[in-house]
Amino acid sequence: MKSRAARFYEEIQDRTVCFIGAGVSHRELIRQFAAREISVTLRDRRSYDQLGEIAPELERLGVRLILGDRYLEELEEDIIFRTPGMKYHLPELEQARARGKVVTSEMEVFFDLCPCPIYGVTGSDGKTTTTTIISEMLRAEGYTVHLGGNIGRALLPEVEEIEPENHLAVVELSSFQLISMRRSPHVAVVTNVAPNHLDMHKDMQEYIDAKKNLVLHQNAFSRTVLSADNEIAASFGGITRGDTLLFSRRREVARGAYMDEAGDIYFADGSGTTKIMNRDDIKIPGLHNVENYLAAISAVWGRVSPATMKEVARSFGGVEHRIELVRTLDGVRWYNDSIATSPTRAIAGLDSFQQKIILIAGGYDKKIPFLPLAPKIIEKVKVLILMGATAEKIEDTVTTFAGYDPSALSILHAGSMEEAVELAQKAAREGDIVSLSPASASFDLYPNFEARGNHFKALVQAL
Description:
By secondary structure, the chain is of the alpha/beta class. The chain has 17 helices and 20 strands. It has three domains: 4-104, Rossmann fold (3-Layer(aba) Sandwich), CATH 3.40.50; 108-315, UDP-N-acetylmuramoyl-L-alanine:D-glutamate ligase, CATH 3.40.1190; 324-461, Protein-Tyrosine Phosphatase, Chain A (Alpha-Beta Complex). The protein has helices at residues 4-11, 24-35, 48-51, 54-60, 91-98, 106-113, 127-140, 175-178, 204-216, 231-235, 287-300, 306-315, 343-350, 373-380, 391-399, 417-427, 449-461; strands at 16-20, 39-44, 64-67, 79-81, 102-104, 118-122, 144-149, 167-172, 187-190, 223-227, 243-248, 255-259, 264-269, 273-278, 324-329, 332-336, 357-361, 381-386, 410-413, 433-436. The strands form three sheets. It has a nine-stranded mixed sheet with strand order 7-8-6-9-10-11-12-13-14, sandwiched between helices. The chain has a six-stranded mixed sheet with strand order 15-16-20-17-18-19, sandwiched between helices. Helix 10 links the parallel strand 10 and strand 11 (243-248). It is globular and about 70 Å long.
């Protein structure tokens, strides 16, 4: 009997397919579709030269290239794969739908074709680390795990290798991917929901509704894991159909994982509790990472033993660009927290340290208010180095907030990452901590937060 994936490729053999954008989620798919002799077009805003070596490679594979500012004109292909970062309601896509074209995405098709159970994770903060912890726990328990999605790896190209038995898919999902999803995972985890990406969504409600799609299409046999400490995420419990678990680091929950005042972490199943570990067993720092473990424990409960959970917590060193210790130089510790692309994520980073630090912040403006960040900067920062498009916005928010004291918080400006690192080194003394935790996206100066973090790390290593 043919798999769903095999039947899918047979059914589209004679149809024309276009991929909008040659990013991570599309490159391998384009190669695979071309190898199957399917008629493939790549549409990308970038020029031939800007695409680099991928452009001539795809030409050799017979892929038609439509590039430049007019790349979305005449969308006449039968099947259109949109890139996750593209607005779902873009007029050109709406017009294509009206003409009967199939507008979909790599992740939507993967959900349709995947033969094994799927763990899906979303949230404004913490979703990458939580996704990774879940995958580490499942692997340590002996499962074959397929990790991908917004974490930076497309899964549709390997869907034919996935088996229904002993295989599990663990997927990080952004609001951009979820906005068009009409299937939900077997296990859905919502770490939290706070204002984010308001430069791409028409309003906060659209952003929340996109997140809801993770749980909205689950059935009665599914599991939903929600943060009891986040009002919006907890409210999703009103629409869940299956087994709904809560997690909390502030209070005991009837069903789910929680931490008590002593830092002991438990799982409650409604009939009793099981102690898993203490927060001190978790190798990666910060209360927000305790929350990530509580979410992961709730997600994998029943598949992964408590002993395996504790073993992973003690050994897992974290994900790159997330409060990542770059080096210690002359008694100064330098941290890369480039993933902190929102105020709430930056607040979590600041709360990971028990002393006042030197903070490098600022970047691309996602139209998110910085007001929640101001008191935390006043509490936790002694030198604030600002750069990028949001520098003045952050400074205005901090300096006009009650409690701001210029003698206790020095604010400096840098025109580049090089200058920011130089200013931080001049300000730092033995025992200090310097952290890049921008509270902003990277797109004003870098293609993504990884590039920003890597540049910062290279500069720090060169000191």
